Amino acid sequence: MSTSFIYHAFGLQCSDYVRQDFVAGNVILLIRAKDGLVRCPQCDSRNIIKRGCSERWMKTVPISFRPVWLVIPVQRVGCCDCGAVRRIDIGIAEPRRGYTKAFERYALALSKKMTMQDVAELLGVGWDTIESIFKRYLSRHFSKPPLGKLKYIAIDEISVRKGHKYLTLVMDLERGAVIFVGEGRSMDSLAPFWKRLKRTKANIQAVATDMNAGYISAVMENLKDAVLVFDRFHVVKLMNDKITQIRRQLFREISSPMEKKAVKGTRWILLKKT
């Protein structure tokens, strides 16, 4: 194995190959940063003083089904220009991660075709490791979607943890994408969304929501020119509840068995679509 191989196979730039070991089915590659390229991570200066190093183990893309570990001595340097004392940035992995960026990309590619549990078993890591990789990917790409072209949005809540917790969702009705998630189901749950929306100066023409008083007040306060639309599900539900209430009241008032029987059998007739 050579420095050229670890560059082309694992994308390790500015590194030299030292040696390889095989332990319990694992491939262990010892590499080190090129001495002439060690710089201050703060100001990129080469005017530095070496202050020891620590060995860092990171899992990378496997070779066949064999796990591959990179062992890198991470140099700690003191900068004579800016005065910073830090460990150098090795570039191939995020700070405090036990795997490389290449391993993260490989796990994400597999997760598009397999379950997270299958990916974890194939790569020999815990399920929570794959979950954390997937969460960071979703956060980077979908946590703050662009709002400038919004025209029609919907606001609703969902129940999680068996009804003990609620989340407020805002959806782009043209794309069908969730663009905001807030804690709770009150007027305050939408406050961060309004701040982001005002900065984009989006032209919201209509907002669909349920009968939640907090949502209605929030829309009327922040989108005064938008048309407020109540979604059909809640309108029909309120009408059905009102019909049921009237029938029950009427059933209690009448005394004739024939009349009670007639009232009792009219519910589905009244609700039937014509």
Describe the fold and architecture:
The protein has 274 residues and is of the alpha/beta class. It has 4 domains: 1-93, no CATH class; 99-142; 152-230, Nucleotidyltransferase, domain 5; 236-271. It has helices at residues 3-10, 101-111, 116-123, 127-142, 191-200, 213-222, 232-253, 257-264, 267-271; strands at residues 15-23, 26-33, 48-63, 66-79, 85-87, 152-160, 165-172, 177-183, 206-209, 227-230. Strands 1, 2, 3, 4 and 5 form a 5-stranded mixed β-sheet that branches. The protein has a 5-stranded mixed β-sheet with strand order 8-7-6-9-10. Strand 7 (165-172) and strand 8 (177-183) form a beta hairpin. It is elongated and about 95 Å long.
So how many helices? Answer: 9
Distance between the termini: 77 Å
Count of strand segments? 10
Bulk shape? elongated
- The low-confidence parts are none
Q: How many domains?
A: 4
| Strand composition percent | 25-35%
**Rg, Cα atoms, Å:** 30 Å
Biggest sheet, open or closed, and with what strands and sense?
5 strands, mixed
Instruction: Return the average pLDDT rounded to an integer.
Output: 83
Helix/strand class: alpha/beta
What is the multimeric organization of the chains shown? single chain
How do the helices and strands follow one another from N- to C-terminus?
HEEEEEHHHEEEHEHEHHH
- Helical fraction equals 25-40%
Which terms summarize this structure?
5-stranded mixed sheet; single chain; 9 helices; alpha/beta; 30% strand; Nucleotidyltransferase, domain 5; 274 residues; 4 domains
